[in-house]
């Protein structure tokens, strides 16, 4: 199965691992890390929004968080998706 | 007159520094897509820097991005991504030809136009990291109205000169002198290279004092702890401040009275002297902005 | 239920704790009556040796029964062996349902979770770090944890709120008649400041040492008149966990930035003059602040009166340089402090009572000019939380936070605005440890907020353009903008932690976390 990663486990960053999902499976996201207890919902929302904005409908994401704020999460999700699909986002 | 005493490099793939670097109050920040980012991370760093530029804060800092060299495959995508965010300027590594700066100027204009940014707003800072770059410093500095500053290289320059780092820094004395001359001849800022040993405060202070004396306006910085040391070196002495206050006051008087000539202590003082006095007060934190 | 002066809704009675005295303000509760005391005892020259062969013998001799209260000090910090050894021995003797009353617990004491689960320990009245804190937060302890400050603990003991049946005093050096000192021995810890309460008031005092010396010991800190038994063991602790080497000032740029702002605030305040006294922490931002203040003292030729705390080599150096007249030591953190305390008459050991007890004729914190503290959170009202983390788990003790904040003329809390994504300046803290009325300033990398009730400080800070003054609301909003909003912690009704204020009233409670 094809996977791609973006980000790091450094402070204020997150490591996003993206893997292919069958067409029609939709978006599934798992996460772990220091902020998940209080920001789990916010992380989920941002990740889904970012994927929607770049036009990704089917993907599996695993997020290891080390205190990434919203814009960092956004950037890492986009980069991971980009690397997974190359130039082709669908 | 923009103060450029310190420009802090923020590694383009490091969220921590990108988001908080400005809090250390350097005069400028350089979001680095080049040397701080490995080949395999160029794409992710570019996206991160874009998001930080769109939503991040930079206080009063001049915001520039060091793009990848024009000899790489990355530079076009770099400027296409960051310029529309409305940055103050880009820093270009390994500049060797005035022609390249013209190409860059045109590329920037195209992007600015498309993004609705005033054409010409994005400044260019040139890193001269090879013997050829240094040799052509004046031509490069005058090749485009966007160019606001030129900087000599450090490690890369030594390699091109086929020499190594010495205690005295002898090998970079000549290049530094050429760059500062060319910069002022071209009426752009001369900005010195980084001091690599972040634990050697005394060494940094000495080098900064020396390059200030040569005529440099500031230095690049790789660690926030270096900032207060450099600012202290560039801070004017009490005597300089008193004198500058006198000159600026006299200039204001003369302007109020509609007089063309400014006189201080019975002597005529011309415009460049007034400007330098204003710059002194600015460095002392006693004057806002300036032209 | 009633809302106390810190804005918290606390029930009138808490199961496992008793009736609640609500916090009414930092000087509101006054004592009644006299101090309690030990039973009288007579000792004649027929007894010249208090040593017993092992811990079990001492426990038997002490008369310890199930259900009683035992106490410990934490001067051996994360290198301590004694707490675990004593509980192991109690278990082997079939003693259970003990109330454990330490001045603090550390990671090394996670061993106690076994004894909690086996019923040897019924309750802990003291800080619970790491795994024990997590266990308590998830409801794994029968009775609530009761947290008290360094000054609140002696107050509780002397007013009879807590009766110590047997105190086990780890003593780096002891003689056969029970003279104790922390200044010498392989496990030297310097000051035994926190142990004095136990020695003064416990019904039976058992000293545990790994360095038995000839009578009388040198540099006695706890005298023989208070000690009933002495037990020698192989090792009372691991020196590398007891004291650190030299304490170094951090070079982390973010911490230095915050420290610089805090130092400038101190320098702009009316207290930065000849005779200044201050207390800072043992590391991080707090110590870095001391470094900047020291620089300014040298530049302006200002000599301080005393340094207080948690003493490290940094304060020892300042004393030796003549920047302090004396240093008052309730806890010694590193080798230099240990070495200095017995050598330098101006380096004085003080007890917790002397340091921070509000119910005596005057404790040192009342004379303190400024203190630099940390916190996990502060809120719009300047309330500070040092007990719980963002996930709502009870993790840290109060330490001297409430005491120094209440006493010092200028109380500064330094904290990075964000720890990862977790904000440290919030609308309302999860747990109130120290009330906002005694917190004067919050210093972060994004700016300095001064309590509106300190107009004098606000004016003073305005005189220094380098101090980035902001309002506390600015900081709350800035943090929220960066982090987004947090989902609330989900809790059950059951109270698993009681946070007492130093006067014995209840300032807040911690509730059990809901299972995920």
Q: Order of strands across the widest beta sheet of chain B?
A: 1-2-3-4-5-6-7-8
Query: How many domains of chain A, as an integer?
Result: 1
Give the CATH level 1 class of chain A: Alpha Beta
- Quaternary: heterotrimer
Which parts of chain A are unreliable, with pLDDT below 50 for 5 consecutive residues or more?
A: none
Question: Compute the gyration radius of chain A: what is it?
Answer: 12 Å
Structural class of chain A: alpha+beta
Helix-strand pattern of chain B, N to C? EHEHEHEHEHHEHHEHEHHEEH
Kindly report the CATH topology of chain A.
Ribosomal Protein S5, domain 2
Mean pLDDT across the residues of chain B is 93
Structure, briefly:
With 90 residues, chain A is of the alpha+beta class. Helices cover 38% and strands 31% of the residues of chain A.
What would you note in describing this structure?
- The complex is a heterotrimer of chains A (90), B (291) and C (516).
- Chain A is of the alpha+beta class and 90 residues long.
- Chain A has one domain: Ribosomal Protein S5, domain 2.
- Chain A has a 4-stranded mixed sheet with strand order 1-2-4-3.
- With 291 residues, chain B is an alpha/beta fold.
- Chain B has 2 domains: 229 residues, TIM Barrel; 46 residues, no CATH class.
- Chain B is built from 12 helices and 10 strands.
- In chain B, helix 9 links the parallel strand 7 and strand 8.
- In chain B, helix 9 runs parallel beside helix 10 and helix 11 crosses helix 12.
- Chain C is of the alpha/beta class and 516 residues long.
- Chain C has 2 domains: 161 residues, Glutaconate Coenzyme A-transferase (3-Layer(aba) Sandwich), CATH 3.40.1080; 237 residues, 3-Layer(aba) Sandwich (Glutaconate Coenzyme A-transferase).
- Helix content of chain C is 26%, strand content 23%.
- Chain C has 15 helices and 31 strands.
- Chain C has a 9-stranded mixed sheet with strand order 19-18-17-16-20-23-27-28-29, with helices on both faces.
- In chain C, a hairpin with a 4-residue loop joins strand 11 and strand 12.
- In chain C, helix 8 packs across helix 9.
- Chain C is globular, with a radius of gyration of 23 Å.
- Chains A and B meet through helix 2 of A and helix 1 and helix 2 of B.
